[in-house]
Amino acid sequence: MNKDSLFETIEKHKDNWIQISRYIWENPELGNEEHKAMEVLTEELRNHGFDVETNIADLKTAFIAKFRSDKHGPTLGYFAEYDALPEIGHACGHNLIGMMSTGAAIALKEAVAEFGGEVIVFGTPAEETNGAKVIFADKGLLDGLDAALMVHPSGVHERSGSSMAMEAVQFDFYGKPAHAAASPDEGVNALEGVIQTFNLINSLRQHLPDDVRIHGIITNGGDVVNVVPARAQAQFYVRANEKHVLEETSAKVKRCVEAAALATGCEFKISNHELGYDNLTTNETLSELYCQNLIALGVVPEEILKDQDHGSLDMGNVSQVAPAIHPYIKMDDCPYSGHTEGFRDAAGDSRGFEAMILGAKTLVATGYDLLTNPAYVKEIKEEFERTVARKNV
Question: Does position 215 have pLDDT exceeding 90, yes or no?
Answer without folding.
Answer: yes
